[in-house]
Amino acid sequence: MKILHISDVHFGPPYLPNVGSALLRTAPSIDPDVVVVSGDLTQRAKPEQFQQAAEFINQLPDVPRIVIPGNHDVPLYRIVERLTDPHRYYRQYISNELNTVLQTPDALFVGLDSTAPRSAISNGRIHPSQLDFCRDAFDRVPDGLAKIVVAHHHFAPAPDYLHDQTMPKAKRAINLFVELGVELIMGGHLHRAFIGNTLDFYPGAGRAHGIVIVQCGTTTSRRGRGREKEKNSFNEIDVTDQTIIVTHHIFDDQTGQFAPLSRHEFARGGRRLETASIRPSHHSRATEAVESNQRPQTLRSTRA
Ligand SMILES: [Fe+2]
Ligand SMILES: [Fe+2]
Fold it and tell me: From ligand 2's centre to the CA of 230, what distance in Å?
């Protein structure tokens, strides 16, 4: 199963049309089975910004998709609306569902609305009722399906020393995800890619292999931060029976195209990488590009 993961497209002034066009050109070559858009579709939650975001998303490959709101998808300055009906335009233009479930032949995705318009300016929250929502959804998953959580805000700090407040009570959520057998957490918000593992932050007994974390940079806005300052990126995630392989693509100003930059490989289900197949079952064109021109740095994560 191939996932195209984009985030923080930020329609409004920060949106970069040339980068958006490049993504639309590249997306079909990824040949995704699922598209994930992990929040911050707009800059200021205005109706025309949501309309543009919806039109953009509709031009991506026509496959099942999971879309969730980010903190920029609730009004910041329209205080009454923020307090009384913060997701008004998100519901109107994107989806009436804020917490969503998507089941495909290979995976069950649970999308969580981590925005907290009444209790935080830019940080998020996961309410206990959303953890119940996760439990209900994942408890009914047939054997063999990958369990994947999507939320805009990060559950673990990015390891680059930039100040980003992690969601309060993130560990409570991680503990439940571990208990439920979640294998992958996807998000955005950081405006730079962070591909890692929960064990870096939440080590503990019984956690044989942790949960793979894949945060996406800003795919189409000028708001990149840290190592992706003034850069744009997206992730391609290949979930096979044995492995989760994340290919990080970055926009190249000189060519005006996205190109794969690094690859991160994790064994699934507590296996070790040596005993897992190290080839993606679905051998993508992007992967071939990595292998043929040898340009991108290949990076293997050994934590399984
Ligand atoms: Fe953002
Ligand atoms: Fe955000």
Answer: 16
